[in-house]
Every structure is written in C-alpha cells, then in structure tokens.
C-alpha cells in the first residue's frame, strides 16, 4: 500500500460521553484509537468531542455539549434530554463557520457523529467528509445523506456488511470497513474457569441473559462495563448478581484485557441489530472463545473463525450449551493461540486503519469513489476493501 501524504483532519466524535478510558462503549473506543493512530502516522488531527476528552488540545470551540440530565434515573444511552439537540445545532454551526476560514479549514472531516449536521458540511462549506456508519439507520442522518447532491465530496463507510445493507435500504450506500482491535494492547491471556461478559449495561445488550446462561451451565460469570441504563440494571441485572455472577464495573483497557484473557469463554448477547460487536473481536484476540446470539452483524464478524459459536438470539439454553463446549476446549494453550492468530489476521487494527487512511486520503483529494457494496464473500474475506480504495486512489 503506497504512503499517504500528511493531511489536516478533523475527527468528529459522538458527544454523549467523553473520549477517554475507561471507554464507555465500542464506538468511543474505535474513535479514540482512530485519533491516536492518525496522529502517530504524522497527520495533523483535531478532535471535535465532548469536554473532558483526550486529544482536545485546549481548543474550546471544538468541544461538544454532553447531555445534561435533570435526574440520574433519567440517564439513557438512546434518548436525549430536553434542549440537547438545540445545543448541538449551535455547536455544529460554530464548527461549520470555523471550517469556512482558510486558517482553520481542514483537508477532510472524519465523521463519527450520530447527527446529520456534519454530513452536510460536504455540501456547505464543501469540505470533503468521510462518515462512518456505526449504527442502524438514524432518521436525522438518513435525511442529511439523501439531501446531498451527487457532486458533494462525501464518502460513507460502514462497520459491517449487515450495517451497509441496512443503510442501503434507506438510500445510503457505503463501502464496508470493519472495526479493528489493537492487538498490541489486547494480548493473549492464559484462560481460566470463569466466564465473562463485557460491554454497555443496557437492555439491547442483555447481560442478564448471559448470567442466566452461565447459571444454567453451572459456571461463574464476571460482568464488566458502564451502566448505561440505571433502571434496567436495577430491574434485570442486579437481582441476579451473587457468588456466581459478579459485576466488576467499568474497567480501563489493561484491566479489561486481563479480565477477558483470564476467562474460559466470553458471552455476547445482543437483543438488537448489532452493527458490529467489537467485544467479540476483542475477546478473540486474547484467545478467549466467543459464544454469541445471532443478531445483526454478529455472524459476519465471527464467520469462519475458530473458537466461536453463534446461536439463535434469545435462546439461553443454546447459549449455555455452546459456551460450555467452547470453555472446555479453551483449556488447551494451543487452542487459545490458534483463536488469537485467526482473530488477529481478520481484525487487526493496524490493517483496518491503513485501509481507512487510504479512504480518507481519497476523499481529501475528491477522487470519485463509486458507492457500491462489495459482495458478501468479499466482505467476509475483508481483503478486497483496501484493494478497492487502492484502485480508486491510484
């Protein structure tokens, strides 16, 4: 892959949480890693994110307002408090004006926001924008995307083939660029007897079903993550905690790697259309097998990898049986090493970021990229995405 010239890049993060460890979710972890990697590559990167984020560099006009909840019990990962969208609109207007000036204009915007405004910056003020689609279709973003003229310098990327298909049904086509794992940070672990579940504690991630599956298998499970829905945690998760189900809270990356790498198996229990499921790739690169519900992009992320099992979403008995079998196999060091090697080959962050870097460079130079979806075999092989970007950038 040919070298990419240094660029001036504005990375726009989601504003719900500050971008720092312990990461509040996979989306924030992915953007945090993106900024860090692009800077190491020599690009001049500014970050637009919530106050308190790493990498803000003391530029107040690039700070985004976080949601201001009146009561702790109202805090939600899916809704916004009254007045928040107005504050966000004001912040985005301020940044748009900043992009119009020669001294603060950038070569390209790397957009991960869940709002529509940054998408429209590729039309006015006409800055090239690369938007990564991390979620199922969101109405505000769909409206903005469909409002763009064909001539706008905009490129859409999706974190999975499943996500790309979902957005395509709304008229928004994207190349598939899956998320990746920093395999220098997520190291091979020794395994152990306990099971593990980690992620955001919210209804759509359904950690309570992981507890039930472990209990039916007679295994002890540890859960780690940020509580994103206090009501759900109090109703569905906390009553199930005990000697065989321990909640250890939100952990920094090093601690989380140690926890996951010392587990016999990781359970992943999405009860929504999971766009990617970074926790699956993270667990696998520690050598820990993964048993997951077949929801959204889960089967795509795990397809063909050793040490994995996918069962029907919501089937706790099937999950318990699959996880038990994987846990038994993970006691052998050779199995764990094979699981890590295969996952690293598929989901290495360095590989993913090199591909994305080329896509950002292509967009910065306004080279047309046909917005078509790769075939499913190509997406699962993950080898032709970078080749496609290389071709259009040649």
UniProtKB/TrEMBL annotation:
This is D-inositol 3-phosphate glycosyltransferase. It comes from Microbacterium galbinum. The lineage of its organism: Bacteria, Bacillati, Actinomycetota, Actinomycetes, Micrococcales. Residues 198-343 form the Glycosyl transferase family domain. Keywords: Glycosyltransferase, Transferase. Residues 24-184 form the Glycosyltransferase subfamily 4-like N-terminal domain. The keyword Glycosyltransferase applies. One of its GO terms (molecular function) is glycosyltransferase activity. Pfam families: Glyco_transf_4, Glycos_transf_1.
């Amino acid at each position: 892959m040919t070298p990419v010239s240094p660029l001036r890049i504005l990375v726009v993060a989601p504003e719900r949480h500050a971008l720092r460890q312990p990461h509040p979710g996979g989306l924030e972890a992915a953007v945090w890693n993106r900024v860090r990697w692009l800077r190491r590559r020599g690009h001049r990167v500014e970050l637009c994110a919530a106050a308190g984020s790493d990498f803000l560099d003391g530029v107040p006009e690039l700070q985004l307002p976080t949601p201001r909840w009146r009561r702790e019990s109202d805090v939600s990962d899916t809704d916004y408090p009254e007045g928040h969208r107005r504050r966000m609109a004001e912040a985005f207007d301020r940044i748009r004006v900043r992009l119009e000036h020669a001294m603060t204009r950038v070569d390209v915007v790397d957009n991960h926001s869940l709002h529509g405004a940054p998408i429209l910056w590729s039309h006015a003020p006409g800055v090239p924008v690369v938007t990564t689609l991390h979620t199922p279709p969101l109405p505000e973003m769909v409206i903005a995307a469909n409002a763009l003229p064909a001539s706008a310098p905009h490129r859409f990327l999706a974190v999975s083939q499943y996500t790309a298909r979902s957005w395509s049904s709304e008229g928004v086509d994207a190349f598939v660029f899956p998320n990746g794992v920093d395999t220098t940070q997520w190291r091979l672990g020794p395994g152990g007897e306990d099971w593990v579940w980690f992620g955001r504690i919210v209804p759509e991630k359904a950690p309570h079903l992981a507890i039930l599956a472990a209990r039916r298998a007679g295994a002890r499970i540890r859960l780690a993550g940020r509580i994103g829905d206090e009501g759900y945690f109090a109703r569905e998760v906390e009553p199930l905690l005990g000697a065989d189900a321990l909640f250890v809270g939100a952990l920094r990356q090093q601690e989380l790697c140690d926890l996951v790498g010392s587990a016999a198996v990781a359970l992943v229990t999405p009860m929504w259309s999971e766009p990617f499921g970074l926790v699956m790739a993270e667990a696998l690169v520690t050598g820990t097998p993964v048993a997951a519900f077949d929801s959204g992009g889960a089967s795509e992320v795990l397809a063909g990898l050793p040490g994995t099992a996918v069962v029907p979403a919501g089937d706790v008995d099937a999950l318990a049986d699959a996880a038990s079998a994987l846990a038994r196999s993970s006691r052998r060091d050779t199995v764990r090493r094979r699981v890590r090697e295969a996952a690293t080959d598929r989901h290495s962050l360095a590989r993913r970021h090199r591909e994305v870097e080329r896509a950002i460079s292509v967009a910065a130079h306004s080279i047309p990229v046909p917005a078509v979806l790769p075939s499913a075999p190509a997406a699962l092989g993950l080898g032709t995405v970078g080749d496609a970007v290389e071709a259009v950038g040649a």
